[in-house]
Each structure stands twice: as structure tokens, then as C-alpha cells.
Design brief:
The chain is of the alpha+beta class and 196 residues long. It folds into two domains: 30 residues; 165 residues, Beta Barrel (L,D-transpeptidase catalytic domain-like), CATH 2.40.440.10. Helices cover 29% and strands 23% of the residues. It has four helices and eight strands; from the N terminus they run ααβββαββββαβ. The chain has an eight-stranded mixed sheet.
Length: 196
């Protein structure tokens, strides 16, 4: 009887540990280490911040955490939050996948690497200009694609999709204040990598 109880207890502990490990991995599962390695190498070769980078995984639905602040040395998630995508990306969905565009007036999000540039005060308060570093987002500056906050973006995961933007990565005010601390204290520009 003791042996049976021990085996049952061992089984319960093993299942609990396995589910916990799976849960922790799922937070950034669609961003394999090669993306972190790619940005680490890119930052090092181009004079960007080599300690941290921001990652947005648009293959994750908008009601789940998909904006990650990553320690480039360890690959560890330091912060995570919700982020809106463009209304044009939503209305242009095909087979459940978001549409991306670099075209002005498309209201789509654009994938690729961005340099987070200087802050300014705009319609949503403080925001950060984004410079597209790839062919897929090279028009970001002329399209006025910026990193900004919006009070309608929730702080925590929800059951329903969140509000849409006009193409900008848009976060909650409280998550923006976290990002702001990283950006404003960085001696070098931080890379934001948006992908699906």
C-alpha cells in the first residue's frame, strides 16, 4: 500500500512539473533561440544595445502576451505585455494569419527589425519613433509608425481580442512605462523585432 501511495504521489509530482515546464516554455515558444541569436549578432555588428531587445510575436493572438523584453545574453524574458496590431492586418487576414504591409495608408503592421529612436509628444502622449531596418518595414518612419501607449489596451491577458491600431505597436500605459525605463536608460538604441 505504501508503495502504491508513493507511486501515485510521484506521478502527481511528475505531471505537475511537466505541466509547469510546458507552461513556462509556451510564453516564448514561437520565438526560438535563433531569433534571439539573430538579434544579438545584428546588434553587435551594427552598434545597437547588446544587452536587451524587444520582440513582438504576431503569430500569437492579441489577447495573449506577445511583446517581450529579452535579455540578449541569457535569452531570458524580462518583461511581457499585450500589444495591438494594425486594423489593416486584421481586415486583411488570410487563413487566420495577419496581413502585413509596408505601404502608406494600409493601416497594417509591418514585420522586421526596427531601431527605437527618440521620443516625442504626440496624440497619445510620449511615443518613440521607429526606423525600419528591413525591406519589409523601410517606410515605418514616413508612415509615422511609432511605439506608443493607449488606455484601451489592457494590462493583462483577456479572453477577447484587444483594440486595433493604425499600424503602430500600441501597448498599455503601464507596460509603456516599463518599456520607457529600458529605452530612456539605454546608452545605445534598442532593436525592436516584429515577426509572425
Amino acid at each position: 500500500m505504501k508503495k502504491y501511495l508513493f507511486l501515485c504521489l510521484f506521478g502527481v509530482i511528475a505531471i505537475a512539473l511537466a505541466s509547469n515546464i510546458g507552461f513556462n516554455k509556451s510564453a516564448f515558444s514561437s520565438s526560438p533561440n535563433n531569433r534571439v541569436e539573430e538579434v544579438r549578432k545584428f546588434a553587435s555588428e551594427n552598434g545597437y544595445n547588446e544587452k536587451i531587445a524587444f520582440f513582438v510575436d504576431f503569430s500569437i493572438t492579441s489577447n495573449k502576451y506577445r511583446f517581450f523584453v529579452i535579455d540578449l545574453k541569457s535569452g531570458k524574458i524580462l518583461e511581457k505585455g499585450l500589444v495591438a496590431h494594425g486594423s489593416g492586418s486584421e481586415s486583411g487576414k488570410a487563413n487566420g494569419k495577419l496581413k502585413f504591409s509596408n505601404t502608406d495608408g494600409s493601416y497594417c503592421s509591418s514585420v522586421g527589425k526596427y531601431m527605437i529612436k527618440n521620443s516625442y509628444s504626440g496624440d497619445f502622449g510620449k511615443a518613440y519613433r521607429l526606423i525600419g531596418l528591413d525591406n519589409t518595414n523601410s517606410n515605418a518612419f514616413s508612415r509615422a509608425i511609432v511605439l506608443h501607449k493607449y488606455s484601451k489596451v489592457p494590462d493583462n491577458e483577456t479572453t477577447n481580442p484587444i483594440v486595433l491600431s493604425l499600424g503602430c505597436p500600441m501597448v498599455s500605459p503601464s507596460f509603456f512605462s516599463i518599456l520607457e525605463r529600458y529605452i530612456d536608460s539605454s546608452e545605445k538604441n534598442i532593436v525592436l523585432y516584429i515577426y509572425d
